[in-house]
Queue: 2 jobs
Job 1
Amino acid sequence: MDQTPELRLLFWETTAGCNLECRHCRRLEVSRQLSQQDLTTEEAHHLIDGIAQVGRPILVFSGGEPLLRPDLFELAHGATARSLPIALATNGTLIDVAMADRIAHAGFDRVAVSLDGADAATHDAFRNLPGAFERVLDGVQRLQLRHVSLQINTTITQHNVSQLEAMYDLVDALRADAWHLFMFVPVGCGLQVPDDQQLVAEQYEQVLTWIADKAKLNRRFLRATCAPQYFRILAQSRLLGRYRATSHLSAMTKGCLAGTGIGFVSHNGEVFPCGYLPLSCGSVRQQPFQEIWERSLLLATLRDPACLKGKCGACEFRQLCSGCRARAYAATGDYLAEEPCCAYLPGSLAVSAGR
């Protein structure tokens, strides 16, 4: 690819610190130790300057738990002063009345809150904190009273896949503006989730088809995240045009966006193609973000579908989907290998197999 693609979303892990020990993430003592390497306030401002130099991507303040970072709102103001749209991704358990006021006045275009079960037992077990479910719902209500745009993030594993209908009803009742379903990726902290808690390829197909069916209702904007084959399913169902017409991120309706439409900066300044592909493209502590985004050889490879291998390379949907590069890396050690959680057999391979 000769031209650097437009960066649309930049996720910044503002801190490794957190107040929870979720099943798919770090232990608290590890979080505390890693948070000592967080970017300083001065370094964070330099990062924001660098992001603004590549365009106007949405800067998502995530973590860890970003509300634990003392200078969060100063940095949010710095981003809006540079005309960057901003969003906040939080586990939702720390949003008391005072915090809700600060969030509402900070200028976040959207706040994403994690909710991983349709009931307290399911969510609290995943988050390893009794009472977390009720604290999240209380936080959501406080944000809504302040007219903050709300997004619900849900990580799908075996623990909650049977609750999709109930979760849909809950999100609908919460009047959220969006519901993003994250298809679990077994890398990094996610390696702590046992294999028997992860979905198999056939379940991925079933869940993504369910999401596509729900999208027909146009009652709520559902987005399947870390699920590039969703766009193949939309195309097969002739729903892709409708999705693009109604999506607030219409230019991003493509499968794997790692290193193309999105990027990720870790708490210590390492730049990655996405938050789930643990291959560093460089560090903002050593070089400007713009230089990394425009000159990284790793990113250049990810931006070229011709580099894909296995059935992803042979697939007629490779331009639209590309497969999850993080899952390929987790399964094989090769980020260009075929997507291991895709049940689809490309047309050319199906013919050769006699199907």
Job 2
Amino acid sequence: MTIYALSTAPGRAGIAVIRISGKAASNALHALCRGRFPAPRIASFRRLRHTRTGEVLDEAVVLWLPGPASFTGEDMVELHVHGGRAVVAGVLEALASFGLRLAEPGEFTRRAFGNGKIDLTEAEGLADLINSETAFQRRQAIAQHCGALRGQYELWRATLLRAMAYVEASLDFSDEGDIAESAFNEAIPEVRRLVAELNRALADGRRGEIVREGIQVAIVGAPNAGKSSLLNALAGREAAIVFHEPGTTRDVIEVALDLDGFPFVLRDTAGLRETDSPVEREGIRRALASAKEADVVLAVYDATAPHPVLFPQGKGTPLPPLSRTGKVIPVINKIDLGQPDLSRSPEESLLISAKTGEGLDALKAELVRFAEESFGGRETPLITRARHRQEIERARSALDQFLASADGSEHPEVAAEHLREAADALGRLTGRLDVEDVLGQIFSEFCIGK
């Protein structure tokens, strides 16, 4: 079935791009242009008419892209029309009246995958590129879309196929003990090298996934320490309610932030204190959970308090909750109202005023420094999604089972099955095997027209 869709954002714009893909794409273009068919891959100016009534719809630039040398691998047409709502609606209605079907989300990219134009990692890279909001997300997505992950995954698979060939050879010569044993032993170092590479990839601190999803920053502290004011100051807008009454923030509030190209997700949390309110206790529980899951914790202290604490009640001064990376940045707020006793303050505290903005540049610089040290490597991460990590872990587990059986405790055919399980897992990374269960999830992330 030939499909069509608006590929640019809906609404009024200077130009809107409408794409068509499928066997009837050329017939639809003939009908729109009324015989003045453009040359392949040359932008041509044409007057578009309704396919049924002949009414002039627009004057547009059209591109005829015959397959298989197109994005989807099928015959494609691109119509660059004026971006007024009425123009777009008229052209789309004309295509529908011609018998074409409106594309589903991601259907163009899914057809590209189905026709072998891209693999799954490249399709995921394209989805990430469309959704990227910072420079680092863009760079990572472009590298993935251009085949950076596919290349490494295919090298791993090639290594595994060599090991499988040795094991299969040992089975073919099972009646000749010396030959079979020699062939089987050739597979062991190949598998060991592959396991080492998979372990290195898995021990990356989730760098690629964190860059893709955003570096999580939890803002914690006692009530009225200025956590919400700090969130608003960093975001540059009134994202959280600021009020003098303690316990105003009950739930976690998230704001995305771009600092020097690094994506951050700031989370304002409920004030930490002892309370009898079940609602506030739930907010505190969520605050502590948010800190535990964060990559960085901003522990906010009140400069006007007698001494800096996170809990204004209770015995002692509890330590700030640790992030999953162990990174905690102590922040003493409200220095515009009073100077804190630094002798009783946490070491390496940053002095700020969320109200006046003093010290915020130093805080942003500290966040960027952490991001550069933790996630700013120039090499492209080999894992950017939880799906990748799961398949690589499955492959490593199967390879570990193979190595454990290499002492002869299992029959060679069982050992060979472990290698096949690993090959299946690596094949699912790029889509070499049947991956219908993940296709729907991947391509549903796309907008209509991609």
